[in-house]
Amino acid sequence: MKPKMQSAIEKITLNDATFSGEEINPSFINFFYGKNGAGKSTIARTLKDNKDVQWKNGKTVSDYDVLVYDTDFINANLANYGNLAGVFTVCETNIEAQKRIDELSELKKDKIEQYESVLENIIKKQEEKNAVLAEYQNDCWKQTEKIRIVFDPVITGKKKKILFAEEILSLTPVEHDFSKLESTVNTIFYGDDKRYETYKKAKKVTYTSLPGCELMGKSIASSSETPFADFIKALNATDWVRQGHSHFAGKTDEKCPYCQQKLPANFEQDIEACFDAQYQEDIAEITRFQSVYKNETADILKVLQNNLNEIMPGLKTEDYQTKLKMLSDAITINVQRIDAKVKEPTSLVSLEDTDSLLFEIEAIIDKFNEQINSRNAIISDIKNQKIKCRTEVWEYIAYVLKDTVQKYRDDITKINMDIEGLNSQMKTLIADGKKINEEISVLNKELVSTEAAIEGINHIIRTSGFQGFSLRAKAGVQNTYEVIRPDGSIADKLSEGERNFIAFLYFYHLVKGSFSSEEVKEKIVIIDDPVSSMDSSALFIVGSLVRMMIEVCYNNTDYRSPKVDGDYIKQLFVLTHNVYFHKEITRHQEKRYHSVNFYIIRKTDNVSSVSLCVRQSQRIPTESENYNPIQNSYAALWDEYKELKTVNTLTNVIRRILEYYFIQLCGYEGNDLQKCVLEENKDKFIDEEDGKKPNYDRYNLASALISYIDDSPAVISDGLNFIEDGTDIEQYKTVFRLIFEAMHQEQHYKMMMNIEDEEQ
After folding, report:
1. What is the mean pLDDT of the chain?
2. What's the CA gap between 23 and 39, in Å, rounded?
3. Counting C-beta atoms within 10 Å of the first and last residue's C-beta, which end of the chain has fewer, N or C?
């Protein structure tokens, strides 16, 4: 369905008097009907004041003459009948000037079309620019989703997509270490303000320099050569004897702890002689080594373990604890092996490597202390460090998004260059238009005059039957009129009807011309209740003039009117409470659906509203159509006929239409209808099919409908009228149409049903 066409004013919002937020979307030609006090003058005043009026893109109120005919116009222009401002209208004396103006006007139209095309392209480019910006904002937001979670406390105030992306554009990207930034953020924004002690390293050990350390890998044995020493060596029982003697010496009452035999008197001397001085010294060294090793390694583990008593937030100690556990296990193994060596000096023992583990642990401690010192430094200067952290975080984010930002800048630069070029074209077109207007203004001075308006107004006054007044040019005063009586005196006592009539003629010629000789602008015309206090003849003339203005405005649509020349009225608004005037100016306008709007203004409980008079098409249900809110009773019957869905009500309406049109208007009698329809055109109402009995349903239905309007007493009183309750409603409508065809009134039927002829 093709939408309504729009002209210069695209929307009116009414927020004055009894209106509140009422919106109107006018077309080219707009008819408003409403009773006095409903709000017509409020609409006219809103248009005149250009208040809450939305103009077509590229247009403003200054592009037009907005002319309003209302009581203010009458009072302002006819306050002094001897001093009316002259109206400049086109005369036909300078053909060459008019020809040049026509050429320039066409050129001006072409420039305006080019201007509108350029403006449309600028709007498209701006939309493209907005789309690029939206894409950039979405990309920034999506690409930094995880980063924003990590740095959430830093980006305060910029956590909305638009603000975030805008901030990035103002930054210089700098590459920073993400891990360090994350640690700094955690320290400043998530941690406490406590200073932490650095990790302590283990003290230097001395056990590695003890002789006992080297003895671990050597077998310690006595070199004594006494018979008893040789005996225990032969038995390889040196360690066993030494351990047994050290364990049981002085505790067995001089008896052998194993066989309970009395020991020889020189037993202690023999035992002592088994172990020479070197052996005794070596045993003493490994025993001292055992003691030192245990003490020093215990201190090492204690120091390293104490480091874990208070762990700084964010410090990852898993590797440290793993190495410490490995060191503890190695020391435990070594202690066990040293103990075994002390027990069996002749055994060979190798110790687990703990130096490498200590070196690795010290390297970890160095890293920890670096982090701790860094944190402590930050805590000591927290205010400045927060500022530095924020700066570096934003620089890092800008670095991550540098490619996205560059793409956005490149795209925007290209679009801005396109817009700049279009703006340059627009400036050129505006300059060209200004030159054209200046030339037209000069030519208009040669072409227009105020005399043509006098002649036109006086001609209408004479032909309309008004004899008591006319217009003439005021002597000695340039471009001024005066209203005079036949005797030449100033007509200062006109009746209200005469005053309003001449005021409208004056307005009508002003619409055709201008108060200025230099520029004749296109018009927006508002006519507010123009026929107050006018008699029927004046009303008829005013109606004719308004219809001419309607046709001028209609020339701006896709369908040019052949009735009048010119298209200087770009939009027309007519508001009235007079039903006869409304019907006079709106004849056949309903058919112009796309360029004509009908409105009805209502006021209920001191609140006014405006309703667009549009409904579903009677002929094409998928389309819409205008309807005139004011119509006579006969037209209303046809509208009722189109909408009825019940047989009983439809029958009554059909009979009333047939009676009014054929009996009252056309002058037929009932017998005439009976003869034309049921006798001369009988075959139209009878369905005949080969091999079947003729169907008289439509014939009988037509007879029943005509019989009800027959003025023959014999027919009316016989009570034998045919009524078929089961007849389909479409059958009634078919018979109704056939009656008009039988009476050769198809054209009237089509007109009232809004059915176009096939050739149209």
Report:
1. 81
2. 14
3. C
